[in-house]
Amino acid sequence: MNRRLSILLLIAPSMAVLLGVFLIPMLLMFLLSLQDEAEQFSLANYLLLVQDPYYLELLWRTIRVSLWTVLCTLLLGFPVAMFMANASGRVRGIVAVLILAPHLISVVIRNFGWVVILGEKGWINETLLWLGLIDKPLRLLYNELGVVIGLTDAFIAYMVLAIATSLYGIDTSLYKAAAILGASRIRTFFSVTLPLSLPGVVAGITLVFSLSMSAFVTPALMGGSSVKVIPVIAYEQIMSTLNWPLGAALAFLLLGSSILLVSLFARLVETKRYKEVFTA
Amino acid sequence: MSSLNSMIDVELRNIQKRFQQNVVVKDFSLQVERGEFVSFLGPSGCGKTTTLNMIAGFLEPDEGDLFIKGKRMNGVPPYKRELGMVFQTYSLFPHMTVAENVAYGLKLRKVGRAEIEERVKRVLDLVKLPHVRDRYPKQLSGGQRQRIAIARALVIEPSLLLLDEPLSNLDAKLREELRDELKRLHQEIGVTTIFVTHDQEEALSLSDRIVVLNHGCVEQIGTPTEIYNQPASEFVHTFIGKTNKLSGRVTAVAAGRVTVETDGGLTVEAGEQRQPFVAGQRVHVFIRPEKIRLTDAGRTPNGGSGQLVMASFLGAFTECEVRVGDHLLSVKVQMVDSTLNLNPGQTVGCSWNSDDVLIMPAARDAG
Fold first, then answer.
1. What is the pLDDT of residue B301?
2. Which CATH superfamily is domain A45-278 in?
3. ipTM above 0.90?
4. What pLDDT digit, counting tens, does each position of B313-339 carry?
5. Which of B49, B58, B86, B93 best tests the A interface by mutation, with the highest count of A CBs <10 A?
6. What residue of B is the nearest CA neighbor of A173?
7. Looking at the domain that runs over B242-361, which CATH code has it been given?
8. Going by CATH, does the domain composed of B8-238 fall within 3.40.50.300?
């Protein structure tokens, strides 16, 4: 048996599964999205999505919430990743376990935890009221802030681990070299640490952004009726309104815009220098 | 004031450093003159790198004072010390081109664009690599990288250049080439330099003075010839170059000359020593292999005859082992001064000058 044939045979089972449960259903979904209520071929669903300001606002809200989540995970995650990079192997392991441990619990339960904490009677509002810093409870839930808090909690581990992995690869004598050449710690961070961690940052941003765009549970639980995002509306169209074609079209709108934005981002980042420095 | 003499660029006064309970640098004092090339030489763990890191500011001494150009530097962070440093691992910034790496320190000093351009060009010419300015470090060979690292350190015109084993990561031939390059650069620029190495050849060939360190203690400070020919301790003698070590007892001391009867049955006469000895004292006798001459068997003034056990021809010289009495002496023979046939088993004579014999008290052990 020749080599190529044996490789084909080896990947055949997984290819068959992918084809059966992923590609074919997706194709069927796509055909479904091209039907009107009378099951005739029509572009009406897509035309509705691009013409109705409601759906454009929906798309923009989904992207906006995802971008805020990316920003929060990046700003909160980078210091943690740096801490891990500077720590001993033992401490790194402990921190990694601490970061991943919450993922052992269903995201539904974690989000309910946040609902308890952030609610009007939650300890954050109670404490702030008691300290007299505010005179009525802050609205931390059922708005975009609540969704961003929930998503940040859900996805920050991906950001931290992606950045930490790329920080591990930086030769620490580079920091010494920068210092002896006259760079303060802040200067060293912006001229050495940050640029050299870019592959991790890019991976983290891409992961967290795609995950946030398609997140359903957290926006549904922590956004309430006021922060509906595409996955939530698509769900409603399919499960409640029973407008499957529109739900399918929404799903493809989400997929298309995620792919477009992620590849635009990659284009933007992967300059000539980036490729020279980071590709082997 | 650190010193009345303004020609002192670096001064260490009773520097001490502990890591937990271990004293890694003990009571280190040194003055380095302007333009001097000083090496810290010793085995790993001797405290040489720790001391260099204290001079650079990456570590703080627990006790003692450090002065650079007359200013006390204790507590001053590395980025305010105005030093140049070259690391064992090159440590070029991989995301910057050669020119950007070299310009980094100048940009931090807010040097103007045109002047940066000019100085980068000049220093790349100095290290003979003007053509690589737009390449990234990974596109350079090890030797080229280290030259660029040197250029990057020199371009800021540092008050002091620190070299942390800069040649250790290079292969033998390149190491020698870059060693000569360092020597040339130092002669050309005359920047005060502190060089850390565990390689005695590098230290001997480059330095104006060598500081030999062992277990955090300064064993000896001296010129390469002093270190080689008049070692202050057995450690210095054995660390720098190969040697023959014979145990014995002093039988006579007269007019500065010491006579030792070795346990293996040899009588060795030695010239004047750095320290006094008394008859009956247990001592070690040291003779370097290249100081021993092989002669035809027979009477030799200072030495003895024995059997040639092994001879390995190494091109420039031949390494021999000769059994004299109960001693196995290693002898380095330059072919120019020998017409002997070196056949194992034959009887040969070994002789040496009494001035080339070093005697150390036996009680003090190496290390």
1. 67
2. MetI-like (1.10.3720.10)
3. no
4. 888 888 999 998 888 999 998 865 556
5. B93
6. B91
7. 2.40.50.100
8. yes
